[in-house]
Amino acid sequence: MEEMENCKRYSAESKGYNDKIYEVRFLPVMERPEYQEGETREALEKLKKEMAEKDFEKYINNGLIRVTYDGSHLMLIAKSEIYRTMLTGPFFNVICKAFDVGNFRVVSQVNGY
Question: Which pTM value belongs to this model?
Answer without folding.
Answer: 0.77
